[in-house]
Design brief:
Layout lengths: L3 H8 L3 H16 L5 E2 L11 H13 L2 H4 L9 H15 L8 E4 L1 H13 L5 E6 L4 H8 L3 E6 L9 H7 L4 E6 L12 H18 L4 E6 L20 E6 L12 E5 L6 H15 L6 H8 L9 H17 L11 E5 L5 H10 L2 E2 L1 E2 L8 E5 L4 H18 L4
Parallel strand pairs: 1-10, 3-4, 3-5, 5-6, 6-7
Antiparallel strand pairs: 2-8, 7-8, 9-12, 11-12
Helix pairs in contact: 3-11, 5-11, 6-7, 6-10, 12-14, 13-14
This protein binds pyridoxal-5'-phosphate (PLP).
The site of pyridoxal-5'-phosphate has 13 residues, from α6.
């Protein structure tokens, strides 16, 4: 018999994907320009020109068998060394190539890290609202998920809630800052508070608790510092991706950094290599490794997302909506007028606005708006947002 669990996962697509697919059908019916699709986190800004130039140079000047051949299982050593140099120069992370494992994006970084850490029945804490795939990844790794809700006014975790969720089975907490779906960045003082709490609880229970820092949005901050978690907490594994910072989500490239300050760091890195092997995630795509290796330190033109954020946030607040101010990523988490997010999103479709209910993120009562779209789409969508608001307020 096939795996029922996997069959179910395959048949039930995510809410985000369902809305995206609906959008494709609707665009075919009424024209793409008439649908305001804010559903997916697909970067709308091209990769920097250096990336294309790096690809061309690699293709024109490299020995093709080497270029397209297997790298070491953990990735090409020189690319890993360049990544280590970069995080050392920015964060004094004390990294070396031997602590970097190249992956197929943050999703692979997460599944590998979870497999490396989890023994069946260990608990992983998720801070809601969270990227819905976390639950799938954790459960596949054999972990029991424990959710800690972060609420208004700031969507930051409260120390007392976190403290109550930690027990002797707690193995890890996934921290995603800047956050999908709220856009919130955890400030340094709050991160330090979380770190101190985890250390205290670890001592109390005689256990090692890890932070899995999911950082695909690290570079997408519009002014606020994004604290580097390995500098605040020793037992940290960073899951990084170039999907958003270099606008390469389809290329599937990222890395894991095991902090040298983590307990038994070398063994933990060996477990990462073992998990990568067991999951079939060895030798991340070589051409992409070499190409990003030539673009370390570069980003897409993030300023354009900041302009989108300013335009959309300002206009929606003027209309009367409310949301927590997003300091990073490219999402806005809007309070659904009336409180019923799925009903609000259904109503939004009448105005050709495609928004995602927060329920699947563990954020009931809110909707996620991905503003990684053209400025023009935002400008043209504003009358629709206004009509929708009036409709919700019974003014139509
Ligand atoms: N983590 C978060 C919070 C995300 O939003 C995403 C993608 O949107 C991922 C992980 C997966 O990223 P990648 O495409 O690099 O696998």
């Amino acid at each position: 018999m096939i795996s029922k669990k996997m069959e179910q996962l395959g048949k039930k697509s995510s809410v985000i994907r369902e809305i995206f697919e609906y959008g494709k059908r609707r665009k075919a019916e009424i024209g793409a320009e008439n649908v305001f699709d804010f559903s997916l986190g697909n970067p709308s800004i091209p990769a920097p020109p250096e990336f294309g130039a790096a690809l061309l140079e690699l293709i024109e000047k490299s020995d093709p068998t080497a270029l397209h051949g297997y790298t070491s299982a953990a990735g090409d050593l020189s690319v890993r060394a360049r990544i280590a140099e970069n995080i050392n120069s920015r964060f004094s992370a004390g990294a070396s190539a031997e602590q970097i494992y190249m992956t197929c994006g943050a999703a692979a970084s997460l599944t590998i890290s979870l497999s490396a850490l989890i023994n069946e029945g260990d608990e992983v804490i998720l801070l809601a609202p969270f990227f819905p795939e976390y639950r799938v990844f954790c459960e596949k790794a054999g972990a029991v998920v424990r959710v800690v809700s972060c609420r208004e006014p700031d969507f930051l975790p409260r120390a007392e809630d976190l403290s109550a969720a930690i027990n002797e089975k707690t193995k890890a907490i996934i921290i995603n800052s800047p956050n999908n779906p709220t856009g919130v960045i955890i400030p340094k003082e709050k991160m330090a508070e979380i770190a101190a709490l985890l250390s205290k609880k670890g001592e109390e229970f005689g256990t090692d608790i890890y932070i899995i820092a999911d950082e695909p949005y690290r570079e997408l901050s519009y002014g606020m510092e994004v604290p580097y978690i390995p500098n605040l907490y020793d037992n940290t594994v960073v899951c990084y991706s170039f999907s958003k910072s270099l606008s390469l989500p389809g290329e599937r490239i990222g890395y894991i950094f095991v902090s040298p300050r983590a307990k038994d760091s070398a063994d933990l890195f060996a477990a990462v290599c073992g998990a990568g092997r067991a999951l079939g995630f060895v030798c991340a795509p070589s051409l992409m490794q070499y190409a990003v290796g030539k673009c370390i330190g570069l980003t897409s033109d993030i300023e354009l997302y900041r302009q989108n954020r300013d335009l959309l946030f300002g206009a929606l607040m003027d209309i009367g909506y409310s949301a927590v101010y997003p300091d990073g990523a490219f999402y806005l988490f809007l309070r659904a007028p009336g409180g019923d997010a799925p009903a609000f999103c259904e109503k939004a479709k009448k105005y050709e606005l495609l928004l995602v209910p927060g329920d699947s993120f563990g954020g009931e009562g809110y909707v996620r708006i991905s503003y990684c779209v053209s400025r023009e789409q935002i400008e043209r969508s504003l009358p629709a947002f206004k009509e929708l608001y009036k409709d919700c307020m019974g003014e139509k």
